[in-house]
Design goal:
Layout: H1 5-17, E1 31-36, H2 51-57, E2 65-67, E3 73-75, E4 78-84, E5 89-94, H3 108-118, H4 121-124, E6 135-142, E7 145-150, H5 157-160, H6 171-177, H7 179-184, E8 192-198, E9 202-207, E10 220-225, H8 229-238, E11 243-244, H9 254-258, E12 263-268, E13 273-278, H10 288-296, H11 300-306, E14 312-314, H12 337-346, E15 353-360, H13 364-379, E16 382-389, H14 391-398, E17 407-412, H15 419-427, H16 440-449, H17 455-472, E18 475-481, E19 483-488, E20 491-492, E21 508-509
Parallel strand pairs: 1-10, 1-11, 15-16, 15-17
Antiparallel strand pairs: 2-3, 4-5, 5-7, 6-7, 8-9, 9-10, 11-19, 12-19, 13-17, 13-18, 14-18, 20-21
Helix pairs in contact: 1-8, 10-12, 15-16, 15-17, 16-17
Length: 510
């Protein structure tokens, strides 16, 4: 095998300069090293929406329910459940003999504490609370039984309980250590315990032998936060990491990686979709005609073919094929530059008008996509410039505060595999990811489907939301990208998951 030694040496030197690379590969028995592109900054379940949080925290925490790689919902910390009162009360029967990683017992009080906290002042500080808005209260029936009272039925709630804000946390530990300490020293009931965390550098998990599901087969998992994709790939090729998780692998590097006899590229269909959303509040993109013109003006299929190497599929709304609510008969607006120019002329947009596209600076593949979009927009008479931001700055400051340019990158995992989890956050008035738009008719549609348990009726409403938002051109839908993992061949029993929520209890290493 021939390798580009000069390029790789430069990349490895960069990694060393950044303090990201050990001087030589060194593994304890049963140690898996993972490259993750982002440090979420807090390990509290109520603080985050990030897939990179969940790819770690799925090993630290458990929820009442669990959804594995096959997308099927199964019992987690609740061994079973029953619905009463027309779906407004759910009784959970809890596993007995379960402990948190500090020895604190898991019981009904811990469940009540978790949801009181999520729906209270602490949860109000983070982005997860509205995901669980149907929960009115949690009532302790006995030590191993709780009733969850809802304001209205929520057909997606059991899936939501399998992730993010619903992860069960230890009441005594948080009371003793405080919220700030918990952010950096999380404790859960999961199969691995965090034993060290260095912000922006990495963290280490060790097996929790007393996990209720049995001890993991690995003794240690090390995560390194490597934001630069080429550096992560170089480290994989050098043997310093065993697994590179999405969305890090640049599509253009896949052929080179596949030439390496020590590495596999493993892909699976994912729920992750990409779009360039529009600033509908001000500037030329406040005009629906302009937004549609920009969509007509970009050949998205050509971008998929030329830049993404066929590892994606076009989308007509901001969801992929795995999403409940996707309408397979719905087609994207076609590439039609003549129509685009005519719409811009109708809207009174002068040729050469400048627009700004905001993107995540560490996403090499999307940077190429954005450059292609800018070139297509140039053809129809718009002068597009690209402004890269550090990911956390874009997500936590620029977008929520409504400080973007005309377009901004939005990628979304839709981890519940239900369009509600995307659409409500993207389009409902007042939500973090909707800084510009307020549409009472759309709000009504979004709210109406949340209380409907009839799947067919609810799917019809979700599909109508997809058509409505496409008609208003609230974003330029781009593509549904496969989940792409770079995996060392020393890793065994690894199963790629659609949403990157990796549960690593069965993984081993040679």
């Amino acid at each position: 095998m021939t390798k580009k030694q000069g390029m790789r040496s430069a990349l490895m030197a960069l990694a060393f300069a950044g303090g990201l690379m050990a001087t030589a590969p060194a593994y304890a028995e049963g140690t898996l090293t993972i490259s993750s592109p982002q440090d979420p900054g807090s390990w509290d379940p109520v603080d985050t929406f990030l897939v990179n949080w969940s790819s770690v925290a799925t090993n630290i925490y458990d929820g009442l329910t669990y959804r594995g790689p096959d997308a099927k919902l199964v019992p987690g910390l609740a061994s079973s459940w029953e619905e009463f009162d027309g779906g407004t009360r759910i009784r959970f029967h809890l596993r007995e003999g379960v402990t948190f990683q500090n020895g604190e017992p898991f019981n009904a009080e811990a469940v009540k504490f978790t949801f009181d906290r999520l729906m209270g002042d602490e949860g109000k500080k983070g982005p997860q609370r509205s995901n669980y808005a149907a929960i009115k209260s949690v009532e302790v029936i006995d030590e191993n039984t709780v009733d969850m009272h809802l304001t209205q039925p929520d057909p997606v709630l059991l899936t939501k309980l399998a992730g993010y804000g619903a992860m069960i946390v230890p009441p005594r530990y948080i009371a003793e250590k405080g919220e700030d300490y918990f952010n950096a020293h999380p404790i859960g009931t999961g199969p691995f315990k965090m034993v060290s965390y260095e912000p922006k550098v990495g963290l280490t998990l060790e097996a929790y032998a007393d996990h209720w599901g049995g001890a993991p087969k690995l003794s240690t998992i090390k995560y390194r936060f490597i934001s630069e994709p080429s550096t992560a790939v170089a480290e994989l090729q050098a043997g310093n990491v065993d697994l590179v998780i999405p969305p890090t692998i640049p599509i253009g590097m896949i052929p080179t990686i596949e030439e390496d006899e020590n590495i596999d590229i493993v892909t699976t269909v994912s729920p992750t979709v990409y779009a360039l959303r529009f600033n509908t509040g001000n500037g030329i993109t406040a005009d629906e005609k302009v937004r549609k013109a920009m969509i007509y003006g970009v050949d998205r299929q050509a971008i998929i073919d030329s830049i993404l190497g066929g590892q994606a599929a076009p989308i007509a709304s901001f969801q992929g094929e795995l999403s409940f609510g996707n309408d397979p008969s719905m087609k994207p607006l076609p590439y039609d530059p003549a129509k685009a120019q005519a719409l811009l002329k109708e809207a009174g947009v002068a040729p050469g008008t400048k627009i700004q596209i905001d993107i995540r600076g560490n996403d090499a593949t999307f940077n190429e996509v954005a450059q292609a979009v800018a070139s297509y927009l140039q053809v129809i008479g718009l002068n597009a410039t690209i402004k890269p931001y550090e990911t956390n700055v874009l997500l936590n400051d620029i977008i929520p505060a409504g400080k973007t340019g005309a377009m901004f990158q939005q990628s979304w995992g839709g981890w519940t595999l239900d369009y509600d989890n995307t659409a409500y956050f993207m389009y409902h008035t007042g939500e973090k990811w909707n800084p510009y738009d307020s549409d009472p008719e759309l709000d009504k549609l979004l709210e109406s489907q949340r209380a409907i348990t009839d799947r067919a009726k609810r799917e019809e409403i979700l599909q109508s939301i997809a058509h409505y938002t496409a008609d208003r051109a609230l974003e330029m839908p781009l593509y549904n990208l496969n989940a792409i993992f770079g995996v060392s061949k020393r890793v065994k029993n690894f199963t790629p998951v659609p949403d990157s929520r990796l549960r690593l209890t069965e993984v081993t290493v040679d």
